[in-house]
Amino acid sequence: MTDQLTIRDLRRKWKPHKERLGAQGGEHGHPTPIRFHRACSWLAEIENLADAEHNDRTLIYQWIAFNALYGQWDENRQEPKQDKTSWQDFLDQIVSLDESKYLESMLVENKKLVEAILDDEYLSKLFWKNPNQGTARQARRAKFASRTWYLEEKWTLILDRVMDRIYQIRCQLIHGAATYDGKLNRRSLKRCVMMLEHVMMSVLQVWIDHGADQDWGPMCYPPQG
Taking the model in full, what pTM does it have? Predict the structure, then answer.
């Protein structure tokens, strides 16, 4: 499993690409190694956390690492592009590059976790538009729909729907709509942290093995020093 790799392992695998691309990067460096370095810096910090659970911080650090990979700069407006559109486009690109089927294997191995996340109405935008038993049932239908998606091997769709649920709790944390270490969201948060760890390790494997020479678009806030 890709999850058994450490960030040190991934950096070691990436090093030949880093050195090769570094020679092409100009004054401030090639953007692809910079994105990789930024992402790994946040994931490494997760490995440095104490043994006790720190799921609030972990998920935030995980998403920052993910954002380092997918973030896009709007050169016309001179600001980052819309967050959700950027990560959806990025995942489409990653899945299309994944000749080794890291993401497919990861989704199959973690099918029960995927179903648990899709069965959690508190991770659904639909539920929060009008929280009641009716919308809760509607939100949980994604779990049953996912069984068809698996049979039809719609990996991009599955990944997009799961990440959309994780994005919901990410927004709650970032925008102050949850209490730090609060009791109400522990189960949902733990599942999302577990899933995002699997996703990130798979995405980075694709990035290393198949994406080193891919154009990942304009990077946000490149180094200036």
Answer: 0.94
